[in-house]
Amino acid sequence: MVIRYPSFYDDGFVPERSGREAVEAAVTQALASAYDIDSSQITVTTLGSYVILSGMVRSPFERLRAEEIAGDIVGEDYVRSRLLHRMP
Q1: For 54-63, how does the pLDDT look when each residue is reduced to its tens digit (9 = 90+)?
Q2: Which of 2, 28, 85, 86 is the most exposed place for a label (fewest CB within 10 A)?
Q3: What pLDDT is attached to residue 8?
Q4: Residues 53, 58, 64, 69, Cα dihedral to 10°
Q5: What is the 3-state secondary structure (H, E, C) of 55-69?
Q6: How far apart (Å, rounded) are the C-alpha atoms in residues 87 and 57?
Q7: Distances (CA, A) of 6 to 26, 57, 69
Q8: In angstroms, rounded to a whole number, what is the distance separating the alpha carbons of residues 59 and 73?
Q9: Which CATH fold would you assign to the domain 19-85?
């Protein structure tokens, strides 16, 4: 099953919460719903139009996947990553 969250580029999408809170909640929920990454140590914040992902992930794949998920919601040009992956 694939869950697709509406992006800001979809027609008719109006978040119930305003601006920053809605974006942070949508990205956080999408990351938590992803079966292929552990998002328990990822923090989502916003700065102006940008979503900032920070924290730790287990691999470079998880970092890229988290960026992709956030990009699906706000647009890939508006995602900035400060995610670090642990070395084995």
Answers
A1: 999 999 999 9
A2: 2
A3: 53
A4: -60
A5: EEECCHHHHHHHHHH
A6: 10
A7: 9, 25, 11
A8: 22
A9: Histidine-containing Protein; Chain: A; (3.30.1340)
Query: Inter-axis angle of helices 19-33 and 60-74, to 10 degrees?
Result: 140
Phi, psi of 9 (to 5 degrees): -95, -10
pLDDT digits (tens, 9 = 90+) for 28-78: 999 999 999 999 999 999 998 899 999 999 999 999 999 999 999 999 999
User: What's the predicted TM-score (pTM) here?
Assistant: 0.77
The DSSP annotation for 16-78 comes to SS-HHHHHHHHHHHHHHH-TTS--TTEEEEEETTEEEEEEEESSHHHHHHHHHHHHHHH-GGG
Domain ranges of the chain: 19-85
Query: Which residues, in sequence order, are bridge partners of residue 51?
Result: 46, 79
